[in-house]
Amino acid sequence: MTRQTFDLLILGSSSASPTSERNPSAQLLNIAERFFLIDCAEGTQVQLRKYKAKFQAIDHIFISHLHGDHFFGLPGLLSSMHLLGRKQDITIYCPKELQGIIELINKVSETTFNYVVHWKFTDNTGLNLLFEDSKVEVYSFPLKHRIYCTGFLFKEKPLPRKIDKFKLDQLEVSTSEIIKLRKGMDVINDNGVLIKNEEVTLDPAKARSYAYCSDTIYNPAICDFIKEVDLLYHESTFLEEHAARAKKTYHTTAKQAAEIAKNANVKKLLMGHFSVRYGHLESFVNEASVIFNNCELAIDGKKIEI
Amino acid sequence: MTRQTFDLLILGSSSASPTSERNPSAQLLNIAERFFLIDCAEGTQVQLRKYKAKFQAIDHIFISHLHGDHFFGLPGLLSSMHLLGRKQDITIYCPKELQGIIELINKVSETTFNYVVHWKFTDNTGLNLLFEDSKVEVYSFPLKHRIYCTGFLFKEKPLPRKIDKFKLDQLEVSTSEIIKLRKGMDVINDNGVLIKNEEVTLDPAKARSYAYCSDTIYNPAICDFIKEVDLLYHESTFLEEHAARAKKTYHTTAKQAAEIAKNANVKKLLMGHFSVRYGHLESFVNEASVIFNNCELAIDGKKIEI
User: B43: nearest CA in chain A?
Assistant: First the structure.
C-alpha cells in the first residue's frame, strides 16, 4: 500500500512585493487529498492555475496575518471560485478583522457568493486546534511580528498499524477484522481462534507533520510548538548582514531560521519570504547550512514531498 | 517638432477572472508624460513590471466601478508604491466606497503610506471634469451596469499653433515672442515690426481624445459623451450569440460595441473585457467589422498610439 499524499506546492516565496520570478506568500498543502491553502498573496489564483492546481478542491484557507503580501489575493480567489460555479462551503482560518474586509468588498460590489464561507478566527495565546478530521489535525500558534500573526501546524493523525501479510495469509480473517487489527485491537476469527494484534501487525509509519512560520522575528519560544516536525517552513527574509533590519522589522535571517530548525530538532528546513533586495538566493542556503544541514529554498512552483 | 505622446498600454483584457493569456481590466494611458492608470485588476502591478512601465510615474488612478476585476489590484499596487519608497501624492478618482475599503485595509495592517492619497469621487449624472492641467482634461460620464459605474474621457487641451519656420527665419523674433505666436497672438519684434499671427503660423494638429467604456450594457445614450473620439475602448464581453446573456448581466456584444462606435462617429474602436468562455478572439473583429470597419482587439501588452 502506498502512503497517503503529503506534499507542499510553493505558490509564492517573495516578501512584500512580487518580483519577476517570485510571487509573495502562498502555499498549497495536500494531505490525503485535503487541500489547504496557506496564505494568499495577490496573484495566488494565477499561480494555482500556472502550476495546475485545482483551486475548487481547496476547502480550507489559512491566513497567518493581515499584511497585504499574505492576503491580497483572497478577494480575487473567492470571487473566481464564485464566478466559476463553486457551491461547496469553504472555511477561512484567520485574524478576525479579515471577515469585515471581505464582507465590505462584497457589500460594495453587491456580490453574494453561491457558497457559504465559514470563518474561524485564530487566537495567538498557544497551540489552538483549528481543524480535525479522520486523517489530519491543524493548529495555530503565536508568532511575534509587527502585527498579530500566527503560524500553522499540520499533523497527520496516527496511521493504522501495518498488516503483516505473510502471517495473516495463514489465518482466516475477514475484512472487518482486518480493520480492527489495523486499529491495534485483537480479534477472534470465525473459527474461534484468538489472533493477538502484536503477532500479525507491525508498527505504522510515523505520522508526518509540517509547520508554517511566517512572518516572525527570531523567537526560540516557538520551538515548543514545532518540535520534530518533518518539514519546517520558516521565513528567512534577510541574510545575516541585514540582521539589524530583520530585528527592526520583526523578520528573521537565514542563520536565525537555521537556529530555530536545529533547536526544534526538525527533519528539514524550508526557507522563504525573501526580501526583494536579493536577486540570487544561494547565500541563504550557504548561511543556514553552517548551523543546520538539511535546508532548502522555497521556489515558486516547487513541490516538496514530506 | 514631434507631437506629444498619446498612447495606451493594455495591461488586462479579460473580464471577471484572469486566464493564462489575459489579466482582467487595467490600462495605462500616457498623455504628454502624464501617466493615467485606468482600472486596476488583481495582478496589475505585475503586468506593469512585465511590460516595463514605471509604476511610480503614475500620479492618477481612475476606477470605473467596484467589481473586483476592476480594482482588486489596487491595494497591492498602493502598498508596493509605499514599500518601494514613494513620497509623491497620488489621486484616485473612483466611486466613494473605495476609500473605506483601502482605509480599512490600512487600519488592520497598521499601515500608513509615506505618501498622500487624494480621493476624488466620480459622479454619474453627466460629463464631470475630474482633472485638468495645461495639457490634459479628464472627465467621467455615466455607464449603465449592474452597480454604479462611470466611463472616462481623456482629451488633449488644444495644441499650440505651429510656427512656419521658413517664414519666421526671415524675421527677428525672440523666444518669448514665439511662445505668444504659438498661442495665436500677434507680436511686435525688437525692430518695431508688427508680425501678424496668420502670416507665420499654421493651424495646430487636432487635439486627440480617448474614451474608456467598461462595464456597460448596450446604451446609445453614451454617444453624446464620446462623440468623435480618436479611440474608443468599449467593452465587448460577449459575441452576438450570447446577446441575451449580455443584456442580463449588463454587458455588451461586439456587434453592439461597433454600433456605438459607428453612432458616435469615432475614429477607431478597441474591444476588450472578453468573457473567459472565448479562447480565440477573431470572431469579435469579424462580428464588429460588419458594422464598423476600424476596430481591433485589446491584447495584454499591446501599445496603441493614438
Answer: A43
